[in-house]
Amino acid sequence: MQSVTLDAGVSPTRGIYVGGTGNVSVVMTSGKTVVLTALAAGMIHPISVTRVNTTGTTATNILLAW
Predict the structure, then answer these.
(1) How wide is the angle at C-alpha 46 spanned by C-alphas 66 and 62, nearest 5°?
(2) What is the DSSP letter of 14?
(3) Which of 8, 34, 53, 54 is the most exposed place for a label (fewest CB within 10 A)?
(4) Residue 32 phi, psi (nearest 5)
């Protein structure tokens, strides 16, 4: 998986879909990096982020939702 940073002019996410349970390292809209632990698979988590990091992310099949 590669880190994903949203391009300038793109709104932060409104949610993150996780297909495989695990941790997701993200940069919040505040600029703070956090690791969201044990996110459940098969659902959209209502989280607003500007980046998903490779390092610290163990969840799989991640999709960003706007």
Answers:
(1) 70
(2) S
(3) 8
(4) -80, 135
Strands (E), the chain: 4-5, 15-20, 22-28, 33-39, 43-45, 49-53, 60-65
User: Could you tell me the CA-to-CA distances from 14 to 45, 62 in Å, in that order?
Assistant: 9, 14
Whole-structure pTM value: 0.84
Q: Which two tokens stand for residue 35?
A: 């690791």
Would you state the structure tokens that stand for residue 49, as one six-digit string?
């982020």
7: left (phi over 0), alpha (psi -120 to 50) or beta: beta
